[in-house]
Amino acid sequence: MAVLVITGTGTEVGKTVTTAAVAATALAAGRSVAVLKPAQTGVRPDERGDADEVARLAGAVTTLELARYPEPLAPATAARRASLPPVSPVAVAKAAAELATEHDLVLVEGAGGLLVRFDDEGGTLADAASLLDAPVLVVASAGLGTLNTTELTARELRRRGLDLAGVVIGSWPDSPDLASRCNLADLPVVAEAPLLGALPAGAGSYDVTAFRAEAPGWLAPRLGGSWDTHTFHSTQAAGAP
Which residues are marked as active site? Predict the structure, then answer.
């Protein structure tokens, strides 16, 4: 895949650290990587954004932001309140396509969930993925409530005829509760797509050398890694029906 769109089932589910893990895994395989953040919200001009964090963790990636808005809101709302131009799905698709001409892999990291609005016309990350004809990776949380949001996201992707590459758990707890352990089996069922990895809780705070070395072990072969869902399930889901 030349372009991979990465979305989440909501905020704070681990999209950025998952994007970094995918980037680090691709770099370790000798691939050139670009990371596109269409709309960065909630940061000042002098602060590090999500794309910067991916580069810090993963290494030598090309990064590009199309817009930055100071308030931590949906991009359309943040743009309107800041009296700044919004980002359109067409602009996102154009930028990703241009990056793809010079890189083996382009990762497009969304803001929030799949249908968070970029502009007042209702343009979303899903629209950009459709224009790019790119697969979408869904990052989900591990615990209670994740099945509903994951299924809703997956249903919308299928309704739009988009390719759901799979689901990655963005933060797997050190001591998973019963819901988390059961969700290892249930997430691929509700998504109708494979589970493609699980990142350990706190992975974003790892030393960068350790992060880059360990990242391939958190992701399945489809994402270039060595993570095996059956092995993970058997070791983590003990006691779950």
Answer: 37
Cα 110 from Cα 176, distance rounded (Å)? 27
Q: At what angle do helices 50-58 and 15-28 cross, to 10 degrees?
A: 40
52 annotated to bind ligand: no
Partners of 7 in the β-ladder: 138
Contact 24, 12 (CB under 8 A): no
Structure tokens at 224: 């270039």
pTM of the full predicted structure? 0.94
Tens of pLDDT, residues 89-125 = 999 999 999 999 999 999 999 998 999 999 999 999 9
Distances from the Cα of 36 to the Cαs of 27, 47, 145, 169, 233, in angstroms? 16, 17, 29, 21, 32
- 15 annotated among ligand-binding-site residues: yes
Residue type at position 102: E
Give 22-73 pLDDT, tens digit per residue.
999 999 999 999 999 999 999 988 899 999 999 999 999 999 999 999 999 9
Stated length of the chain: 241
Phi-psi region for residue 59, left (φ > 0), alpha (ψ -120 to 50) or beta?
left
201 is an annotated ligand-binding site residue? yes
Residues ≥6 apart with Cβ < 8 Å to 80: 86, 120
